[in-house]
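subagent[fold] <- orchestrator: predict structure for attached chain, return tokens only, no commentary.
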Amino acid sequence: MNFKLLLVFLCVIGFSLNTSFGQVTDSPKVEEQSASYVKIQRVELTDKYTVVYLEFTERKSPSPQLYGFPQKLNPGSSQIWLDPETRLYKPGETDKKFKFIRAENIPTDPTRKRVTPGETVEFVAYFERLTPGIEVFDFYEGRSTQGQQSWNFYGVHIKNPPKNQLNKSAKLAPKAEEPIKKPLEPAVVPDTREPENTSPEFAVMRGTVYNAKTKQPIPAQIAYIEKGDSLQIRSSSGKYRIGLDPKETYDFRIAAKGYYGSSFSVSPADSASRSGFNHDVYLTPLAIGETITIPNIYFATSEYTLLAESYQELNKLADMMRENREMQIRVEGHTDNVGDFDKNLELSRKRAEAVQKFLIEKGIDAGRIEAKGYGGTRPINKGTSAEEKSKNRRVEFVITKM
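subagent[fold] -> orchestrator:
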């Protein structure tokens, strides 16, 4: 046999074996994940399946609470399982999903597998075969419910080239002449495809947590409430991705050591793209002299009694002062410049004192909190519209000691 022909023949054999046994990606790159104690060890693509090999390690002790959110049952629990509703998605295209088939060495809901602190469990999940060319996918177990943490992986990079690249090697093989065949009548094949899902099952919120001064990403904890359940994830890079129900509204808290946290609400349905949107967060570092506006502080018009809608934000401030026991602050009240100057000055002082009183009632030593009112003398916005003036009506605090 001609040497060159033999070489081509061996290449074709190698190609066919590779096609038969699929592509294997060891330790695939994962952009973000919801639980650090579960890792994807390998992804294998066979003729029929996408096989994901995972490793779970039960933590020896639960992590601390984040600004009052209760600790979830995972990690630190004694039972694990894999939700049979888990599926794979092409990022940003929630209609392209690949269903869960079966799992090995881990039960599926409602059964459970009991584990002990420090124990490691290796398990395998089988899904429908990813379409060739999809080289990045999301592993989505679901939105966590009843205090349980779902295992979601976003941006899993694998080897899965398009078919046209796979077929290039096949063209190297010499083709034998095929006998002439009589054309057959076209067979009627029933359409078994599922109808296109015009309403996405979830929307992906992605973003980065930054230092507001340096504009550099910082490690952070992202906590949110979904249908009464308190959930949290940690990001060592500051980047995050979270799957949300497009029909729900979420309350988020972002925290980072050495920074003042942020709170905000999100409604995926309000975004331009219901399947995904961005939300970056900027946190102010805790340092002497820093002035930080306290968001979501509400008073009745021309009054200084705190409304209940303010309590969540002030509780966060009290938690921060408990964590930083040497910190001292000056609470500052501000109004707009409409109305009597002296009355505005008094109103701003009483509003600052109302915040001071709240913190003292939460156990913060009175000697750590000073209160001052500046009326309309320190505007941050000099516009004349109602919206611009409203930004001048605010409560801030200045760090005077750390």
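orchestrator: received. Logging for downstream: Residues 12-21, 62-76, 178-189 have pLDDT under 50 and may be disordered. Residues 70 and 350 are 34 Å apart (CA to CA).
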